[in-house]
Amino acid sequence: MKTRRQDALTSSRRSTRAPPSVENAKTIPIDLFIEILLRLPAKSIARCRCVSKSWAYILRRTCFTELFLTRSRSRPQILFSCRKNGELFFFSTPHVQNPERSSRVAASYHMKFPFDDRSYYQGCFVPVNGLVCLPHLLESKKRVPMICNPSTGQSFVLPKVRTKGCDMVYSYLVYDPVGKEFKLFSMTARVYGSCEEHQVLTLGTRKLSWRMIECSVSVRYAQFNGICIDGVLYYIGALNGPPWGHGIVCFDVRSEKFKFVNKAEDMELWSGTTLVNYKGKLGVLLSFGYITQDSEYFELWVLIDAEKHEWSKHVCVLPPLWKNIVSDTMLEFVGMTSRGEIVMSTCYLSNPFYVYYYNIEDNTITRVEVQGMEAFMKDNTVTSIESQGMDAFVYCRVHISLSHVEDVKLM
């Protein structure tokens, strides 16, 4: 009798420890099973793939990964890329829902990579459908581009861009929503010279290789942080002229064709101008320098019709409480949320670290403290640019993106 009880107890423990396969889970319909898994974070999905072959089969299917990505798009996160001692760290936080005047949010650490400090400004870290391009990863003492997924920890190195003696490389990760293709678009240029070669690398092909494309727009250099909206990459370039000055270049990801959008007569573009996604349209934020407690307003331009070069201008007057909330901080534009809120922050790490949400319709400002990066900030807090020097300022620089989504698709 004692032996039977021990056998029964052992059998019961084994049954609770070992996850049941999908085929034997008769009490849970497959639709409900998928619905439960869709609510898990990306890292938990990766662990669930190891439960059994049947679980792995379901979680690797295209229909599941597309459903997971669709849900992720409805709740985008903020992605922080921070540099420290020749390494690039990734953190993320959720957007604050229904924030009060002052709120807090926790940051989650994802992964890190070795990175060439000298090339920190020669590329953008804007996430596209969960993927991020590192244009100049330091790999075996060579600078090569890499694609990574901060949510799953996956990454792979891409072929090096052919420069032919050029000094600078501008790279953008773009996406074609029709063909569902990721592409890496790069421009090579010489210092104080024109962008000489334009190249494209299509991801997902058997043999990854760069190919040259023709560009009908002549610019001396491009802005690093372009933005891709509905399959069109927008970036600011200094025109070879005439006319001289800065203009907005459009690159259609699918057709790989270029065109130019004329700015409005009283729109003052410069290299520090911020391009944003304003409810599916191209937006331009103009502040003419840092945003401080003495700032009273800034401009928001929205591209109404790209073919007719029509723009609408909005003057955003900051609320009276702006001076008290911002204090002596110098801010830069980060972008806009899907709800139409303008997000600002400092371009360097500090302790505490804040992100500011400005609601255009309500004319309200919310300060959100980002917690969880204290270990990263230990002994590297920058309190003053004047006291620490420009080297410390660059050393602790941070890039912030608002459109990061979790994608569980295996690369």
TrEMBL record:
Residues 28-68 form the F-box domain. Pfam families: F-box (PF00646), FBA_3 (PF08268). InterPro entries: F-box-assoc_dom_typ3, F-box-assoc_interact_dom, F-box-like_dom_sf, F-box_dom, Kelch-typ_b-propeller. Residues 1-22 are annotated as: Disordered. Transmembrane segments: none annotated. NCBIfam families: F_box_assoc_1. This is F-box domain-containing protein. The lineage of its organism: Eukaryota, Viridiplantae, Streptophyta, Embryophyta, Tracheophyta.
